Amino acid sequence: MKSATLRIYYLEAKFEFLKAIRVPAFTLPSLIFPAMFYIFFGLMFNSGSHPQHAAYLMATYAVFGIIGPALFSFGVGVAIEKDQGWLQLKQASPMPISAYFFARAVSAALFGLVIVMLLFTLGALFGDVRFTHAEWLLSLLALILGSLPFAALGLLLGLSVKGQAAAAVVNLIYLPMAFLSGLWLPIQMLPDFFQYFAWIFPAFHLAQIVLAIQEQSLGYPIVVHLLSLVAMTLLFVALAMRAYRRA
Amino acid sequence: MNKLLPLFFIAALVSFILLLPTPTEEQPTSTSLRIKNASWFDGTKWQQSDLYINEGVIAHPDSAAETIDLTGKFIIPGLIDAHTHIWGDAPQQSLQFGVTSMVDLFSDSDVKVFNQRIKDIQQAQYADIFSAGILATSQGGHGTQFGVTVNTVNAPTEAAKFVVEQVDRGAQFIKIVYHHEANYGPFTSIDRATLQALIKAAHAQNKLALVHVSHLEAAKHAIAEGADGLVHMISDQDIDEEFIALAKQKKIFIIPTLAVIAAMNQGHQLTWLEPQLRLYNRLSEAQRQQLTQTFNVPFAKQNLLAIAMRNTQRLHQANVPLLAGSDAPNPGTLIGVSLHHELALLQQSGLSATATLQAATYGAALELSLPQRGRLHVGDRADLIVLGKDPATNIHHTQSIEQVMKNGRWIKLQSFNTKAPSIPITEFPIDAAGKVAASDFQFIATSDQMMSGNSSAALTFIQGKCAQPEILGVQISGDIKPGFAFPWSGAMLNFSRNFSASYDLSDFTSLSFNTAGNVGRYRLLIFSEHQQQPKMITFTVNEQCSKQTIEFAAHPNVNWEAVQGLAWVAGQEQSQFRLLIDTIKLNP
């Protein structure tokens, strides 16, 4: 019985992932944009002025990279399937509905993993990034687990907006948040006001956690960022549950 | 197949992580080391045998040790500066000059951090700091003029509480300032009964009582009341037989601090700093200049160095232990560097080179109970200096530093003799927020509030009456109030956020700017690298616009080659004032 339930989760996740990679319109931008941006801004325009530049932007573009699949898989995917009645069908089926959300979370995390590995490889090969094994591993784990708050945010959006509007709404949040959280340019380069404004974004907190591992964060205690992320995630989940009951 | 998938997945992830590059180790020589063919001073005598180091300490012979050959080199224990004040990066900087332990005789540093580092045998970035914490002085006494909050001791009944407070903060010694008269120069002093109570309280806490005196009479009182050491040489008059007998009978030690006495009241020359030895070339011009600075001690005599050196000689002949201490970073001294000056002055006072070396190594460690320091016996810390020339023939050869080891690790020695970049702009156009275009420069208000004073300053950036239309000036509205010894209020032009950047202005001949405001004398302050106090240049302001030109050639004591910031301030001559500054320009 127990293994049968597990099998449902496994199969749902597997096919969700297969479905996702078979949509090149989703796969290619998620994989290519973070890597491309990183190559431009992290590696090519890194004149060697700041030795930690490549490592810093590798972390922030990795954060940028893992947010994409989580936000899109939930924000856009769920919105469309909700409108098409597919979500209702899933709800009606004997499969626990949590398997559906679990599958999306795993799929997003796997995509995130591929992106992170791609960025780490680029940073190591061309940016001369050197970390201890523990730092590499911690960065990777923080990034993968860090996709959860964005999955929750995406779910909230997906359940709240119409399928046709979803892509626009997600981008409207994703791109400004990425910029204002210091994912494209180091946050120190933004005016002081933005350094405080960034505190409202989960992306800022995740970036600071990953940067803290390489000792390049702004220097606030890591637990502050961790608690902020947990609180934001809980808030998103609570709001999403309300939206789910209404949907 | 499905069951193997997670395993395969994890294995792939682990191999990915393991394949990612890691930093190359920077400190390969923390293991066993054997130094052969060097002459080495163990803190009391010279040795020729091999020297073994393991796990940060001097070790027994070990056949597996990696050997390095230092033929023709001389090794001495890392030096101990028995009188310093710790400020900023002093613990890092002193290592650069071979000073691996320092006694901090008053600063508001976090002493517990120092005490942690003393225990840490892995660290090789900081000199060990043995600190006295805050000094004991009277209200208005010496030590209260530096802007550090000092809880003064004004009666014998307050002594025990003060001492316990310092010990709780982690203090390793109790430092007391004493003078035999209630008033001297601008200062007051604790009375003799309070001195006695403080010394007793220190001894009750098992701490050495180290007393700051400069006069013979005060020194006699201090010794009679049980002081363990005096932290300056007597410099008001020649000592008498009574004093020598008292010092011998009470077994006290003295830290002459001739290096700082040399800087008092008369400028001194750099004859002790040997241009052909390595130390000289590692110092910047500004640092060398700083070593020639002087400061006025209003109540002291002109020939006090000569008196202090005669007294040093007589006490040495009487076998009173002398400890090398520089009192850096007072004006005319530099952390780490000035201890070499002190050694030169001790030798000049009649100590043999070996006795001088002892005063800065085992002699100091013994008197001050600094465990494992100042000596190279098995179990002692592997803190040492490799010299190219023999210090036993001439103590100036301590300046031939080639390598420094702290806790068994070699320190990367750096040269401070580097040039600052040229300043990128010659005019300073500001916006309404005080930012200078095309630079990181920024105008901010500055006042003695940062030193707990009461003056205030506010800036607005407005179209002034002195400049071309459209050009903004700095309007200072300030209020000078007593509260700090040298009150100030004005506008500061920072070249970087935290004084981290310096620029070379020496390619220009002058700095000009327009002024208008309340009539009076004002000052331009120039902050430059390695000068902990800014240089002051005065100028007179009228109600009408006037152009001020500061000729650099007229102010050779300013280090124009590495300027970190400028400030236009009013001093104690003013009360409420308004001052407009604009059209600031560097002229070729």
Keywords:
heterodimer, A: 247 residues, mainly alpha, 11 helices, globular, B: 588 residues, alpha+beta, TIM Barrel, Jelly Rolls, 2 domains, 6-stranded mixed sheet, 5-stranded antiparallel sheet, 25% strand
Write the layout of secondary structure elements.
The complex is a heterodimer of chains A (247) and B (588).
Chain A: H1 2-21, H2 24-44, H3 53-83, H4 86-92, H5 97-126, H6 133-145, H7 147-160, H8 163-180, H9 192-197, H10 202-213, H11 222-246
Helix pairs in contact in A: 1-5, 2-3, 2-5, 3-5, 3-7, 3-8, 3-10, 5-6, 6-10, 7-11, 10-11
Chain B: H1 4-19, E1 33-36, E2 39-41, E3 46-47, E4 51-54, E5 57-59, E6 66-69, E7 74-77, E8 79-84, H2 90-95, E9 99-104, H3 111-119, E10 128-131, H4 159-168, E11 173-177, E12 183-184, E13 187-188, H5 192-204, E14 208-212, H6 216-224, E15 229-230, H7 241-249, E16 253-254, H8 258-263, H9 278-282, H10 285-290, H11 304-317, H12 338-348, H13 353-359, H14 362-368, E17 384-387, E18 401-406, E19 409-410, E20 442-447, E21 456-463, E22 472-479, E23 489-494, E24 510-517, E25 520-528, E26 535-541, E27 546-551, E28 563-570, E29 576-587
Parallel strand pairs in B: 1-6, 2-7, 8-9, 9-10, 11-14, 14-15, 15-16
Antiparallel strand pairs in B: 1-4, 2-3, 4-5, 7-17, 12-13, 17-18, 18-19, 20-23, 21-22, 22-29, 23-28, 24-27, 24-29, 25-26, 25-28
Helix pairs in contact in B: 4-5, 12-13
